[in-house]
Structure formats: structure tokens, C-alpha cells
Amino acid sequence: SAVISQKPSRDICQRGTSLTIQCQVDSQVTMMFWYRQQPGQSLTLIATANQGSEATYESGFVIDKFPISRPNLTFSTLTVSNMSPEDSSIYLCSVEISAKTEAFFGQGTRLTVV
Amino acid sequence: KQEVTQIPAALSVPEGENLVLNCSFTDSAIYNLQWFRQDPGKGLTSLLLIQSSQREQTSGRLNASLDKSSGRSTLYIAASQPGDSATYLCAVIGKDSGGSNYKLTFGKGTLLTVNP
Questions:
Q1: DSSP letters of B91-115?
Q2: Tens digits of per-residue pLDDT, B54-86?
Q3: In the predicted model, what is the mean pLDDT of residues A22-47?
Q4: Are B31 and A107 in contact (CB < 8 Å)?
Q5: Nearest Cα to A81, choosing from A70, A68, A66, A93?
Q6: Contact status of A42 with chain B (Cβ, < 8 Å)
Q7: Is the pLDDT of residue A5 over 90?
Q8: Chain B contact for A6, CB < 8 A?
Q9: How do residues B96-107 score in pLDDT, each as one tens digit?
Q10: In B10-101, beta strands by DSSP E
């Protein structure tokens, strides 16, 4: 199993600013994932972050808007840049030990952009 | 492209009732299926994981089944309690569109309310 700490748990931000969300895992993992959950919707994968390489972004998400860092095997950050009210969502960090084991999630960051 | 559908979207039951939540997926080439619970504004808590070779998994009052060939899974909750009130999400793990990495695809969830 894995314990994931995500910070901040929530924030209210002004439009045009940026917010960096941190994700810390209690064990070394190869792959970390960032998801967005818009109000009333399910989770959508933003990108996959592997240590030592560029993040892989899903269709509709770009690095300029959602830059990701993965400096080591236990930590990652997601930045939401130049925010607008449409970016108001819950952002979640996840890790999977392998394709055959459970996915574990952080407690999420509830972002409101005003 | 994998699509996951959950029915019903919302369910309200009296305390003590047994209930079934449904999940269907369009691409049967999955590695596993996972059920999660999400409380309002919070992250996801893993409930049960079913490997693609398995038919069901049980944990306490929860039982999840998987019929991979028909693309269906059910989550059975016995003797429901008010504390079970939450959104229940189904997710399948399979290969991404490029075929080289794997990814989770989520349903939209079932909002369960258990009334005392």
C-alpha cells in the first residue's frame, strides 16, 4: 500500500495567478498520476509523471497550463497556471504500484478560482 | 476508447437495506477493476480491487463481482448504514490509446444516501 499526502487541501485563488500542488508518497513509486475532477464530474487524467523524464499529457491538457515536476521517486508537483474560474476543480494525485495492484489517491486539493 | 458507465447516478435507501451498484465498461481488455468511495470534496478511498482473472472480491459488508466478457461489475452493500453515504466510483485499468502505458478510466459515480 501507499500513503499519499497532498498539499494544500484547499485554496481560493484569484484569476490569472498560479497554484502549485504538492504530492508526497511514503514509498518509492515509478509512476505518479495527476487527475482533475470538475464539479459533478468524474476523474479525468491530466498527465502521468515518471521520475527522470518529461510528463506525458492526455489529450486536452498541455504543459504550459499544467507544468509537472517529478524530482524523485516519492514526490511530484502540479502547477495550475494562469488560472480562470473554469479551473475550479478537485485535483488529485495518485500512484499505482503496478497494473495489477490498487491505485492509491491523495486526499485531493479543492481549488476555487474567483 | 474505454468508456465506463455507472447506474444509477443516485440512490437513496433506508438504513438496513441491501443494495447493488452497477458499472459497465466498453473494452473488456482490462487488467483490473477497482471500486472507490469518495466523500464530498475529498479524495478517493479504495474499497475493492478485482483482478481481471477473478470473479469477485469481498471486504466486510461489501462484495464486488466482475464479468469481464460482458463488461460488467456490481458492488453489493449489505445492511447499509448512514455512514455508507458517499459517492461510489468504479474504475478500470487498461492500456492507454498508445498501447504502451496503462491508465485508469473512471465512471461518473453513484451518489448513495442512506437514511436513518
A1: EEEEE-TTSSSEEEEE---EEEEEE
A2: 999 999 999 999 999 999 999 999 999 999 999
A3: 91
A4: no
A5: A66
A6: yes
A7: yes
A8: yes
A9: 766 667 788 999
A10: 10-14, 19-25, 30-38, 44-51, 56-59, 62-67, 72-77, 86-95
| A57, β-bridge pairs | A47
Tell me the pLDDT tens digit for each residue of A92-103: 999 976 666 788
Would you call B108 exposed, middle or buried from its count of C-beta atoms within 10 A (0-12, 13-18, 19+)?
middle
How many other C-beta atoms can be found within 10 angstroms of the C-beta atom of residue B11? 17
Buried b vs exposed e over B85-105: b needs ≥16 C-beta within 10 Å?
Answer: bbbbbbbbbbbbeeeeebbbb
In the sheet where A75-80 sits, what is the strand order? A4-7, A19-25, A75-80, A68-72
The residue whose grid cell reads 498520476 is: A33
User: Residue B44 pairs with which residues in a beta bridge?
Assistant: B38
Q: Do A92 and B31 touch (CB under 8 A)?
A: no
